[in-house]
Design a protein that fits this description.
By secondary structure, chain A is of the alpha+beta class. Chain A has 19 helices and 17 strands. Chain A has 3 domains: about 35-250, GAF domain (Beta-Lactamase), CATH 3.30.450; about 295-455, Beta-Lactamase; about 540-650, Oxidized Rhodanese, domain 1 (3-Layer(aba) Sandwich). Chain B has about 100 residues and is an alpha+beta fold. Chain B is about 20% helix and about 50% strand. Chain B has one helix spanning about 1-20; strands at about 30, 40, 45-50, 55-65, 70-75, 80-85, 85-90, 95-100. Chain B has an 8-stranded antiparallel barrel. The chains are: A alpha+beta (about 650), B alpha+beta (about 100).
Amino acid sequence: MDSDADGTGRGSVRAPGPAISHAHGPGTVPGSTNPVPNVDSALGQQRELDRKRLHLHVLLETSRELSGMLQPRAILETFLLTAMGPLGAVRGVAVLARPGSAQGLVASRGLPKADAEALEGRLPDICDLYFPYRDALAGSPAAKVRVLARGKVHGETPPPGGESILPAGLDILLTWGVDEEHCGLLALGPRLVAEQGQASGGAAGQDSGLDSGLDSGLDEDAADLLQNLVHILIDTLRGALAVNSIRQLSNDLTRQNERLAEALSASQSAQRGLDRRVFQLAAINELAGELSNIQAVREILDRFLLTMLGAFGAASGLALVLDRAAGSVSLALRGATDPGLAGYEAADTLVYKAFAGSGVRSVAPLTVGTLADPATALKGGGLPFAPSAAVYFALSPQVQGVLVLGPCIAEGDGADTGRAAQANVCLGEADQQLLRAQVAALLGYVRGARHLETITALNADLTRHNEELTRTITELTEARQTIVLLERAGERVRAFLRNEAERSRRFSWLNCGVILATATLLALLFNLASPGGMSLIPEHLRQPPAKAVSAQKARELVETEGALIVDARPQAFYDQKRIRGAVNLTPALFDMGYLMRFGQMPLETPIIVYGGNISRRWDQEVAARLLAREHERVLVLDDGLAAWSGRGYPVEP
Amino acid sequence: MRRSLFLALGLAAFLLLGCRGPVEGLVGEYEAEGQAGAKLTLRPDGGGALAVGAEEAPFRWEIKDGRQLLLHTRQGGILALNLTAAGLEGDMPGAGKVVFLKK
């Protein structure tokens, strides 16, 4: 039943002439009983050659028509058009079906429109009826052409009162396989002309059984032609199906590529997002390590702000903590110049705007929230840059703050970017959640730093108190040592007093008198033996005292007789206050003073001496020495300088 | 005991040498400028006298701090004269400022 013995899936086109073999010998006309002359034989051979040429021409034209066609329906229709003519068929039906799915194409010519449409609708029945062998012959070459005898196909006989699947007259039936999935059916007939060779009933070529299945009016040459045409059709359909399959595969591949490109783009976007998130988390992780070693709030804010600017790609930003109880502000600002937010009033205004913009009515400790529209909420807050994200927080009802990020350096990623652009911010929702979480973590560090500051201050105060206590203890120790020393000294004094008391008990007035008498005796002996010894009795007591004169009389003597006034007091008293014009002549320097001043003075000149007190009478001593030098009129001023100055007489300086 | 005695003698000798002073240059006679007949005599033995005419007033003298000459009178008085390049200068009792020029 196979049409191609080589198994290539394609039947070989039989060449005209000698390749054609049938029961009749060369030069004989089938059906003739008598030998014909050579001319008739030649004419017969000529006709045979012409018919072979015609068939080859048909095959060539069919190949030309079908070559390059890619649409199976057009191929089937063109094939019917080119095959029906040479075979003389009035109607024809060509089916290309996929039995597995009961789908396919139906092309027809010469059929009424209703019959053609009915065939389209009965395609599953055609598949069930004409292609059941596929399951049994699975794995066999696909291009085998089978010739079916009309009416011998199982189930083809219409039921009583029913209709056959194929219209009547389509007696030439061939089925073939195109590939593993597609099968074909060709039905032709009836023929307009039945040639001489149609009744030959000979072999139908390599496709065994062809002669038994084909219409009895189809001769061997026509059968060969039909076989070759079908093979051309199979090849064309294979090529078309292959091209269509390739195109479909190409289209599928293109779509797959497009989906892959989209998936790749999404993957890259997700990768960028993941990279950014990894970078943010790495920065935040590093920040956690840094902040754990920082103890000052201002430094914590600065490091935190720097990390947030890097993690979220912001060009500028500020972090501010306001302590209303202490009236202090801790500010970290980067990427801009401080417009005065370090001041309490400006910082209070900014924090108030942040909380007012959040809509929070009451401030609970450890509150953290983001501002949906920071540009509007913080407008007029004195920010030196346009805010793109802001987070307010409260450490306690008295300690609040705000973190504000400025414009972003680069856009974000993926879907977040779209939402961010819509909200006029550069941080997506995930970024803002991350930022909020980090600010919440910041509160812990700030609270710890504030507690540490309090502890440090308490420690410093404690250290100061300890130092004061140490000093006090030292002073007490020294005082105790002093007390011990004083107690020892007291003990010594008491011991000394006791000893002295013991000695006083041994004191006797006799001893004292002996010591005094001995000392007096030694002093007298020394004075008598010394050439410069002093007189035991003052010199002025051994002479008659000089005459006294009152202050008034003394002034008269000075004014009338040019009396000389002598101040006998020591020079210190003389320099302090003296009678105007008085000369200082003390007993101690009497000899020198007398020689320098009085040596050439007349002896009758009156000399008035003053200066003395109840214990020392310098005036009397000087007066006595002047009298001893034979001055005739030596007088002592009564009551001395006091009487003189009491009368208002001139003194100096 | 002996050691303490040697130390005391050594200290006394040191004090005597230290207190000796530059007395040789001051020894001599001085005459008061502007005071006719007033003469001051410093003897090498530490004694001296102020003489006016035929009368004399003895004294003992010493140098204090290398700048002053102290005259100790018999009556116990002390008179200080400043040492100058020309001689001695100081306030004399009853006469005021007097300059003694070395003869």
